Write the structure tokens for this entry.
Amino acid sequence: MKSFSKLLDSFGEGIFKKLNDKKIELENQGKEIHDLFVGTPDFEPNYRIMKVLSDACLNSEDYKYSLRVLPELKDEFINYYKKRFNVELNHEQITMCNGTQEGMCHIGMCVCNEDEYCLLPNPGYPAFTSSAKLAKANIYYYPLLEENDFMPRLDLIDEEILRKTKYVIISYPSNPTGGVITKERYKEIIALAKKYDFIIINDNAYSDIVFDGFESFSFLELDGAIDVGVEFYSLSKSFNTTGARISFLLGNPDIIKAFDKLRSQYDFGMFIPIQRAAIEALRLDRSFVLKQQAIYQERRDALCDGLTSIGWRVRKSKGTMFVFARIPDKYNDGMEFSIELLNKANVLVTPGISFGPLGDKYVRFALVKEKEELLRIVDIIKKSEIL
């Protein structure tokens, strides 16, 4: 058989496969693995969402090609974004995709030609790099540093790079760092986008998981934002519907039109029962979302305070369902520490190198266990003497 595409060789899976294989090996030995690896919410979806989806699945008409976003869903989303973020939208400024990962991986091809430049965060979510590779774009990574509260400083990037930049991806609250961004910093980025004529793609997946009184916002709230960019908004983490893959892209109508044109080449639209479930989700009172947010904060405090109390000082994340922890000084890198943590404590975390070179000295914990279980994991780490 002839070889496969060279593009596939650029998509690394070694780190995740190595850790997953080790997890399976230990489970086959009868070991209990404490899995804080993947960020899948452990909360149940609201019953009303499941009921609407279930009922729609019994309607044969809803099994046809959808070919579009239901107008009533766009109407509901317009109402939701107005109430949630005070952002006014119209139908031409909204479309959907099967999850932000799918949308993000394709949007680079909409806005960027081969060999044009994009700016991506380091550390950052791996799909951002995949998107650039699919678009055959040149990548310039901008650093997210702990001493800067993991916020970008695009104003420090060389002007020659900014002039060549076609698009930049901004993602806050940030996976993996748990950082948040201020409106003032974002206004600076919008000003740079206008000055150097690049597009902003904002990933707003974790806006409903923020801590310590911080108020998340939509980038589209800010003056001039819709002139220069678009925003992904997902129902996955807010409404615990990760498997349903419900994501919206909203903002600049020209970018929305280009995105829809590309999607028409490989997709016939989102399954209508899922669109009906999305309508129901957007109608729900946000009280349960706020309750979940408080629980995530309790979990963050339990994990970070617990680890600090046993000698591993861990910075508290300001948002997302993750904690990005700098590894103890005696370890060379996050991969070495992750393997040691799995071998000695049966705790599975994600090495920070998975998110880029600047994550090399970190590991990422997912807050997907109850507070009591996280405290038990802290005790297990202490008894393992890994620290």
